[in-house]
Amino acid sequence: MKTVSNKITLNLDGNAEVNVKGFIAPIEHTINNFHVEWDALANLRVAEPEKYHSTSVFQSFLPTQSVSVGECWRIQEDGVTELLQQLHPNPNLDISINASDSCGLWACLRAYNDLFADIAFRIHAEFKFEDGRFTPSQFTGHLVVDRIGEKVAFFEMYVPEGPINFDVDWNSIIDSGLCPQMELRVGTQNPVRDAEFTGDSITQEETERILIQRFYKSEQINWVPPEQALEIAQAQQKPIHVISIDGPLADEAC
Predict the structure, then answer these.
(1) Is 6 left (phi over 0), alpha (psi -120 to 50) or beta?
(2) 0.90 cut: is pTM over it?
(3) CA 226 to CA 230: how far, in whole Å?
(4) Where are the domains of the chain?
(5) Is the pLDDT of residue 14 over 60?
(6) CB–CB of 142/190 below 8 Å?
(7) Shortest CA distance to 111 belongs to which of 214, 1, 20, 194?
(8) Number of CB atoms found within 10 A of residue 115's CB
């Protein structure tokens, strides 16, 4: 453990093992009823409800250099692939080949004190089935590192709630729906959820904003409500170009 000029270096004890629990709840609904008609989706369950992973898997989430709060880095794919295989045996991290808007694995240091470091992350991935694919909106979560013991104090990686949080391709036909739980977890409670950080932190909302801009250029646009856009257009004597979309711009659930 080392702190230099408000930057910290993080590491984990490579000799330890971490017990990870996995959860996939039955699909609640799909627009075209794929969760009933398609066996692969109807029978989607976690591959291994409980598994011990080497700490090196979680080392993949850590920066290779010293970082400060708000700084981002790429997560190494090997560790993420191994974790996702606990959910389903065929994860794919290169979702760009399926015309998805964005792919990648990014982490950000949200906060730290003398005891813990809280790393937030966002991952885009999919699972390959024999006759199709399952693409969650995103995987998000936190890795909390015990800085003194150099161990995983808490970990959660999950697909956020809907109303729609995945899309699927079954024999080149697209559908979308809601999976109420798809999650990997270490521990039962985040030890820094209510912790006080004196200056060395940013909010969860700020962290999410930093991460999403790594994926979508549309998030770099200064969006305003329609009423405000109309006022600006009238004041500047400029036309409004209206585009209608039928899905979200900020995740892969479309």
Answers:
(1) left
(2) no
(3) 6
(4) 2-236
(5) yes
(6) yes
(7) 194
(8) 15
